[in-house]
């Protein structure tokens, strides 16, 4: 049996209740449909600061860029977006805790609210899920590695471990570790997840090209390391549009025995730059590079054939794109 065949999973009937199954059981019984991107969608609706007018920080455009204080400042807006994803068929709702470490929130002026932001985000997701979907805690890179180099990994560990503790205390079902550019920092996050005894889906992000992550590892090498460190599914998220991400995942497929996970962005990239956040259209002109929903429908169809076990969307992906994914996944 090939690695491809061993990870091919049946498709869920989306009316099936997920309330009696945990994430590992769901992955074993069929392809799990996640949700989409929150921060850019909420920025478009006027509830999140893109940070583009603030000082340059690392490879980002601003210290306050896309931080999740909306969970406490405009909870109704976040609640509504959760409802839209659930209605579109999502079996997992992610608590809006992306960039929710104390390190990132400190730079945006919200460090003192780290606990309340994480707790509120999980509570909102749980309220909307109401037993119909699982709730995942989103944990992302700290940006310390980009700002200070590899010697900052000890500080990153402290911040990531703190956030994971907050998410566990708030009652998440599992973690989605996402948008890590350095495999070294992803390793830290997986170790923290294991110490907290929380299952983790682990997805790397690749830029400017999909050939290797920022600290020089290929997609296949990343998949093997994440698998060895206990991730229940491994893959990629953000940066790439669906077509380009599929080729990245195909490189990972032979290096792991666990299901693949994919959360592509809804933005076109170029042959010379495979990451939308490195394009001049980010963040103010993203509408000019938006992909169609049909590309997500086709990705859902292709993902089924490739044996991807966890499928959702990332930046630019609203409920219409999740519905298209679901339609693609159920195509004969």
Descriptive notes:
The chain has 332 residues and is α/β, with parallel strands linked by helices. The protein has one domain (31-329): TIM Barrel (Alpha-Beta Barrel), CATH 3.20.20.330. It is 43% helix and 11% strand. It has 14 helices and 8 strands. Strands 1-8-7-6-5-4-3-2 form an 8-stranded parallel sheet. α5 (75-88) runs parallel beside α14 (319-329), α9 packs across α10 and α11 crosses α12 (242-253). It starts with a helix and ends with a helix. The model is unreliable at 1-20 and 55-62 (pLDDT under 50).
Question: What is the strand and helix layout of this fold?
Answer:
Blueprint: H1 3-7, H2 23-29, E1 32-33, H3 39-44, H4 70-73, H5 75-88, E2 92-95, H6 102-108, H7 114-129, E3 134-140, H8 144-148, H9 153-170, E4 174-180, H10 183-195, E5 200-204, H11 219-228, E6 233-237, H12 242-253, E7 260-263, H13 293-306, E8 308-311, H14 319-329
Parallel strand pairs: 1-8, 2-3, 3-4, 4-5, 5-6, 6-7, 7-8
Helix pairs in contact: 5-7, 5-14, 7-9, 9-10, 11-12, 12-13, 13-14
Q: What's this entry about, in short?
A:
The chain is α/β, with parallel strands linked by helices and 332 residues long. The chain has helices at 3-7, 23-29, 39-44, 70-73, 75-88, 102-108, 114-129, 144-148, 153-170, 183-195, 219-228, 242-253, 293-306, 319-329, and strands at 32-33, 92-95, 134-140, 174-180, 200-204, 233-237, 260-263, 308-311. Strands 1-8-7-6-5-4-3-2 form an 8-stranded parallel β-sheet.
Which labels suit this protein?
single chain; 332 residues; alpha/beta; TIM Barrel; 8 strands; 43% helix; 11% strand
Element-level helix/strand string: HHEHHHEHHEHHEHEHEHEHEH
Assign an overall shape.
globular
Helix content: 40-55%
Give me the side-by-side strand order of the main sheet.
1-8-7-6-5-4-3-2
Strand count: 8
Count of helical regions: 14
Can you name the CATH architecture?
Alpha-Beta Barrel
In the predicted model, the low-confidence regions spanning at least 5 consecutive residues are 1-20, 55-62
Distance between the termini: 23 Å
Backbone structural class: alpha/beta
CATH superfamily: Homocysteine-binding-like domain
The value of Rg in angstroms is 18 Å
Number of domains: 1
Mean pLDDT figure: 90
The CATH topology annotation reads as TIM Barrel
Percentage beta strand: 5-15%
What does the largest sheet look like? 8 strands, parallel
CATH class: Alpha Beta
